[in-house]
Amino acid sequence: MSQPTTIHAQRLNLTFETNDGPVHALQDVNLEIKKGDFVSFIGPSGCGKTTFLRCMAGLETPTSGEITVNGMTPEEARRARAYGYVFQAAGLYPWRTIGGNIRLPLEIMGFDKADQAERVKRVLELVDLAGFEKKFPWQLSGGMQQRASIARALAFDADILLMDEPFGALDEIVRDHLNEQLLQLWARTEKTIGFVTHSIPEAVYLSTKIVVMSPRPGRITDVIESPLPKDRPLDIRDTPEFIEIAHRVRDGLRAGHADV
Questions:
Q1: pLDDT tens-digit series, residues 206-238
Q2: What's the domain range around 153?
Q3: Exposure string (b/e) for 129-165, b if CB count within 10 Å is 16 or more?
Q4: At a CB cut-off of 8 Å and minimum separation 6, what does 206 contact?
Q5: How many angstroms separate the Cα of 23 from the Cα of each of 13, 14, 49, 137?
Q6: How confident is the model at residue 19 (pLDDT cuts 50, 70, 90)?
Q7: In angstroms, what CA-CA distances link 230 with 18, 85, 205, 224, 237?
């Protein structure tokens, strides 16, 4: 049985007006994301990956076309707490403990203290940070800070997790470890995940669907449905199936450049 559609974009265009003239960030973008999908967006810098993610979150307004999140406008979905958003930097307040940072959106949303405490405990366990609630961000490594940021986005239990290149600044060993943990988290929570990355191996390893985008104006040049099993050890990256998908992603990126 087919899963319901979570995010649907149709003929989406976005043009920024600047002092130097219009900047066409997105052009005629069409995409359907099903409930439970893990969708990675990959393309060169400035191709509109983050802009598209921000459109889903209601942080940017398209110039034309349609986008819905759980059948609502992105603004309605934001008010309904339909998604959590993880930025490139962890963005933790240094004067608040890890628990305090995770509690912040819950405090703003008016959850009672007992519920806040239960949710903080649960998401810290989900991201393997149990016992670190009273630590401050500066006492944690970069990878641990980013896991705390993911915990904060999960705290109010939104169905959708939007992640804007969350591991881009981390070294390869830490990144591999967090990729494994993110897949385990996705398997346990069954969230729908939209994930921006510049890394072909990361996109192929994590995703059920890989969206390849062209240089500006950002267009979708390929949508690759992954045949890889949900259970993915890191060494799956050495298999012919993985390498074949990575080649297709690379070919799509090259074709996008050639079309400009």
A1: 999 999 999 888 899 999 999 999 889 999 999
A2: 92-157
A3: beebbeebbeebeebbbbbbbbbbbbbbebbbbbbbb
A4: 38, 40, 179, 182, 183, 195, 197
A5: 11, 9, 15, 37
A6: confident
A7: 43, 23, 10, 15, 13
76/3 same-domain check: yes
C-alpha 99, offset from chain centre: 22
Percent of the chain with pLDDT over 70: 97
Asked, for residue 199, whether it belongs to a domain, the answer is: yes
DSSP assignment letter at 4: P
- pLDDT for 174 equals 85
107 in the same domain as 56: no
Q: What is the DSSP letter of 110?
A: T
Calculate the alpha carbon distances from 114 to 104, 155, 156 in Å: 14, 13, 14
How long is the chain? 260
Is the same domain home to 28 and 68?
Answer: yes
> Would you say the pTM of this structure is higher than 0.70?
yes
Q: Establish if 257 belongs to a structural domain.
A: no
CA distance 65 to 42: 22
257, two tokens:
């450049």
Q: Which two tokens stand for residue 227?
A: 């045949």
Residues 38 and 144 in one domain: no
208 shares a domain with 163 = yes
Residues 208 and 108 in one domain: no
**73-102 confidence digits (pLDDT tens):** 999 999 898 999 998 888 999 999 999 999
